[in-house]
Automatic annotation (TrEMBL):
It comes from Apteryx mantelli (North Island brown kiwi). Belongs to the isochorismatase family. The gene is ISOC2. It holds the Pfam family Isochorismatase. It comes from the Eukaryota. Residues 13-77 form the Isochorismatase-like domain. This is Isochorismatase domain-containing protein 2.
Amino acid sequence: MVVPAVEAELRARPGLASVLLCGIETQACILSTALDLLERGLDVHVVVDACSSRSQVDRLVALGRLRQSGAFLTTSESLILQLLRDAAHPRFRQVQQLIKEPAPDSGLLGLLGGPGVLPGEQ
């Protein structure tokens, strides 16, 4: 769902290579937006624990399709740490305090059958 306002932002950033997505209705908004961005040649990173749907089935099927389509699936903690790069970052200690406590269960692992398993994967 690359609407005109998003299209304008993309044109304003000709060197843009990657996009991070999170939001609601994974099976609609996130999926459509990701597919549009992938079609434009961008790397799309979907923050799975920051995406929701009205039903867990819709969410899981959409995440599977996103992965099959070439989107990178990640978690918020992993993404934050990748953006910092390493412990030498001046704000590493601050961020470490924010992610120190384990996040509440997002419901993904139990429904996925374990770590790293999405629908259709063996």
